[in-house]
Specification:
Layout lengths: L12 H7 L13 H23 L1 H8 L7 H12 L4 H15 L1 H21 L3 H4 L2 H31 L5 H29 L2 H6 L4 H18 L13 H11 L1 H30 L5 H29 L1 H23 L1
C-alpha cells in the first residue's frame, strides 16, 4: 500500500503544493497571530450564522411553515436547513476561483457580505401569518445565499491559515478552521440556554428566536473592518491557474481525492446529526429547552478544544493516524451511544 503523506487538508503533499504558493513558507512574509485570529473570528461568525438556524428549527418551523400535524412544520424547517447545502459546493467553486484570481482577502470580505444578506433576511422576514407564502419563499432564498457564502468561506479561510503557518505547524494552524466552528456552535448554545431560561416558551416562539440572528448582524461591521486589515497571502503571479490545479489533482491524485472526500464526509454527517440533537431532545425526548441547548454548548466547547488537540497531534504524529483514530472510535461508539440516549 502506498504511504503517501497527507497534508492537513487531507490531500497528498504534492497536490497540496499545487494549492498553495510556489514560494517556500520560510520566504513568505510573516503573518502575525493577530491576523490569523482575525481570520478565525470571521470564519466563526459565518458558521454561527449558518448553524444557529438548526438550534431554533422548532420555532422557525412554526413561524414560517404552518404545516398541519405534530411534526409537519418541523420537518419542513429541517428540510429548509438542508437547502443551504445545495449552494455550498457552488460557493466553494465560484468563490474559491475568485480567491485564486483576486486574493484571499477580497473573497473573505465577499463571503461576509453574502452571509449578512442571508442572516438579515431570516431575522427580518415577517411570519407566514403576516405575509403568507412570501415568508417561506424568502427564507428559502436566504438559506441559499447563506450556503453560497459558507461554501465560499471555507476554502479561502483554510488557504490563508495554511499559507500563514510556519514550517512544522500547518496541522495546528489549519485546525483553527474546525476549532472556529466549535466556537460558533458554543456561542449558539450560550444563546440557546440563556433565552430558554429568560423567556417563556411563547416569547421564544414569537420573537425570541430572532435575537441570535440580530446579534450576529451587530458584529458584521467589526468582521468587515477586521478582514479589510488582513494581509494578503495569495501570490497570483506565482500560482497555477484554477484549470491547471484541477487538472493536476484529477490526473495524478484522483484516488486520494476521492478518499479525502469520504474521510471528510464522516465528520460532516456526524456534525449535522449533532446540530439536529437540540430539536430531537425537545420534540422527541421532551427535555427542557435549556437542557437541550446546553448540549450544544458542551458539544461546541468539545469541538473547539479537541479540534486544536487534533492539530497538535497532526504535527506531532502525522496526518494518517490523527485522521484514523477518531473515525474508528466513532464507528464503534455511535450505535451504542444512540441506544443509550433513547
Amino acid at each position: 500500500m502506498s504511504t503517501t503523506t497527507l497534508s492537513p487538508a487531507g490531500v497528498p503533499e504534492g497536490a497540496a503544493s499545487a494549492l498553495s504558493t510556489h514560494q517556500p513558507a520560510a520566504q513568505r512574509p510573516a503573518i502575525s497571530r493577530k491576523a490569523v485570529a482575525a481570520a478565525v473570528a470571521g470564519n466563526a461568525l459565518e458558521f454561527y450564522d449558518f448553524v444557529i438556524y438548526a438550534y431554533f428549527a422548532v420555532y422557525i418551523g412554526h413561524t414560517f411553515f404552518p404545516v398541519s400535524g405534530e411534526y409537519g412544520s418541523l420537518l419542513v424547517a429541517v428540510a429548509i436547513f438542508g437547502v443551504g447545502f445545495f449552494t455550498r459546493p457552488l460557493g466553494g467553486l465560484l468563490i474559491g476561483a475568485f480567491a485564486d484570481r483576486a486574493g484571499r482577502k477580497p473573497a473573505m470580505i465577499l463571503t461576509v457580505a453574502l452571509i449578512t444578506i442571508g442572516t438579515l433576511g431570516l431575522a427580518a422576514t415577517p411570519s407566514y401569518a403576516s405575509i403568507g407564502i412570501a415568508a417561506p419563499v424568502i427564507v428559502v432564498l436566504c438559506r441559499l445565499v447563506q450556503g453560497l457564502a459558507l461554501g465560499g468561506e471555507v476554502g479561502p479561510a483554510t488557504a490563508l491559515l495554511l499559507e500563514a503557518a510556519p514550517a512544522g505547524r500547518r496541522g495546528f494552524y489549519s485546525s483553527w478552521q474546525i476549532a472556529s466552528q466549535g466556537l460558533a456552535v458554543a456561542v449558539g448554545g450560550v444563546f440557546g440556554v440563556t433565552l430558554s431560561l429568560v423567556l417563556t416558551h411563547e416569547q421564544l416562539a414569537a420573537w425570541g428566536w430572532r435575537i441570535p440572528f440580530l446579534f450576529s448582524l451587530v458584529l458584521v461591521p467589526i468582521a468587515l473592518y477586521i478582514r479589510r486589515s488582513l494581509p494578503e497571502t495569495h501570490e497570483g503571479s506565482r500560482e497555477r491557474s484554477g484549470a491547471q490545479i484541477v487538472g493536476a489533482v484529477f490526473s495524478k491524485h484522483r484516488r486520494i481525492l476521492w478518499l479525502g472526500v469520504l474521510v471528510s464526509a464522516a465528520p460532516a454527517v456526524a456534525s449535522q446529526v449533532g446540530n439536529y440533537m437540540v430539536t430531537y431532545a425537545v420534540q422527541v425526548l421532551k427535555l427542557p429547552p435549556a437542557l437541550a441547548q446546553g448540549s450544544v454548548l458542551m458539544g461546541g466547547a468539545m469541538t473547539f478544544v479537541f479540534g486544536l488537540v487534533g492539530g497538535l497531534m497532526c504535527d506531532r504524529f502525522g496526518r494518517k493516524a490523527t485522521n484514523q483514530l477518531p473515525r474508528i472510535a466513532m464507528m464503534l461508539l455511535i450505535v451504542p451511544l444512540y441506544m443509550w440516549l433513547s
